[in-house]
Amino acid sequence: MFFFSLFLLLTCGKIAVKTLKIVEQKNFVFTEENWEKMLEGEWLVKFYAPWCPACRALETDWSQLANWADESFPSISIGSVDVTLHAGLNGRFMVTSLPTILHVINGEFRVYKESRELNKLKEFIIEKKWKEIEPTSSWTNPNSFLMNAMSKVFGLSVKLKRLDKLDFYAVSFVESHNLVVQMGEMDFVVNYLDSVLNRVCTHYLDSTFIGHSQSRDPLHNFLLGLKFLNKTKLIQVSMDGPNPN
């Protein structure tokens, strides 16, 4: 009898775990690597932070919405973005309040501003009320050049905050008014900081400061304005990429 009870307990436990995993999968988790999946089909996506009280209040209804959509309205998918883990998506989607809910269909984005109650969310989907909302403008489309830039700025700012705890010093840029050049500079810094943070060590590049102290370059000013940059050693980024020295 004991062994039979133990067998039932283990079997039920396995079923419960499998069921839990299925429920979790119904709410698709977006990251900076897979967010473009959002451009295919129809989605309702929640941007949230674990510390946000309103976000926590929405958790149960959002899980129930994901289950309901999967069973009763499979034409739409439900997803979520944790902005504390994916700051780049926070910038890319211009999220200014939490939670933010976006309706996405065939690459068009609309901000949901109605009640976050479960019945209202279902009603919004069933009655296709998204058709009454103007989509976001093309220049704020998450896939636009400008929003790609915003994604990099947000991602870099988080990395620099982490670097403040390390023995890291400063970044300088050759002045450039060309946004394409600035994006190339940003790509280098983001990739470089990734390599440093992944090694969790202290590191720096020696170089000569060749930027301008009163630069009008917005990226240059953004970086110089960060607290951590008031130090002595520099990472230099020029139009040609990193200083080989």
Oligomer: single chain
- Percent strand: 15-25%
Q: What is the CA–CA distance across the termini?
A: 74 Å
Gyration radius, in Å: 23 Å
What is the N-to-C succession of helices and strands? HEEHEHEEHHEHHEE
Given helix and strand content, the structural type is: alpha/beta
Q: Which ranges are low-confidence, i.e. pLDDT below 50, for 5 or more consecutive residues?
A: 1-24, 163-176, 199-245
Instruction: Tell me the number of helical segments per DSSP (H or I, 4 or more residues long).
Output: 7
What is the typical, i.e. mean, pLDDT?
66
DSSP strand count? 8
- The helix content, as a percent range, equals 40-55%
Major sheet strand order: 1-3-2-4-5
The main β sheet shows up as:
5 strands, mixed
Shape: globular
